Amino acid sequence: MGTKISIPQGVMKPRKRNSVTKNSSKGDSIQQNLNINDTRTSTTSLDPSLLCFNNHFALKALFEKNTLPVINENIDFELSTTRVLDIGCGPGSWVMDMATEHSHTQFIGVDKLPLFPQDIRPANVTFKEADVLAGLPFEDNSFDLIQMRLFLVTFNRTQYIESLNEIYRLLKPGGFVQLVEPQLMDQGDDFIKEYTSKLKIIMEYNDYDSEVSDHLSILLDKTRFITKESLRKGVPLENHPLSKEFQYIVHSSVVSCKPFLMEVHGLQTDEEFEEMKTRYMESRKKTESVFTVAVGQKPF
Length: 300
Ligand SMILES: C[S@@+](CC[C@H](N)C(=O)[O-])C[C@H]1O[C@@H](n2cnc3c(N)ncnc32)[C@H](O)[C@@H]1O
Known about the structure:
It comes from Rhizopus delemar. By secondary structure, the protein is an alpha/beta fold. The protein is built from 10 helices and 9 strands. It is globular and about 55 Å long. Residues about 15-40 have low confidence and may be disordered. Bound molecules: S-adenosylmethionine.
């Protein structure tokens, strides 16, 4: 189910010949895929669903609301005909929080995987397993608001555009799309810079836009939307009321990518991974976590 990621020559640190992988639950399968000391391209698998860490309330606190002001000013959430969709909803936190705030509106969350709650949910919420790249099972012009959040490492450039085209089809004329993406942190000490530069090389090699958070308005424009509002906010990972929450998000994202990071950094054991993670978190605390929210409107 994971996304296949190719790691180009020169980025991946080779592992030592004949070394044994110990205490690593996923290390064995990586070891088998990896031709030791071979600097040719390698392929590994990254499961974006694992990145659905508990970030919803931290993002809501950072941006002060679940939606930017232009949405709140233009969508009537008191109407029972108002329909909202969250694509790649993961555990469904945004949908359920929105549905609790706006009990008259109908909310639908879709995800390729059934990560959302199966039984417990507000009465005005429906979840569906569906793949946005295969086309969603909803009529043209049928939603007032559609959100797609945190797809940086999920969709490559082509897939990002395909999903925006599908969002365009589904929105009513005058309807809104809200996109939320993180920035890859390349400020900081040499350790952070090397870590991020490797990630960027791998993403670009696989045609992922490592700077998608800077390009949201361009993507909206390319897919015929009019950008109505865009907001970028950062949280210092130390000495800020939200530092702990955002440190937790960064930590969870590193843990979620463990097999991938072990391959890239040539790590053999859980201990080596823990050491790298601790070093990364210590360096990362001196930096910020930055997110951008952009809102586009489908023309009338
Ligand atoms: C990084 S998570 C983001 C979850 C959620 N949007 C949030 O803000 O917490 C990406 C989600 O997109 C889902 N996903 C990946 N490809 C998809 C596709 N083609 N169609 C629908 N959902 C997809 C994954 O299963 C995962 O739940």
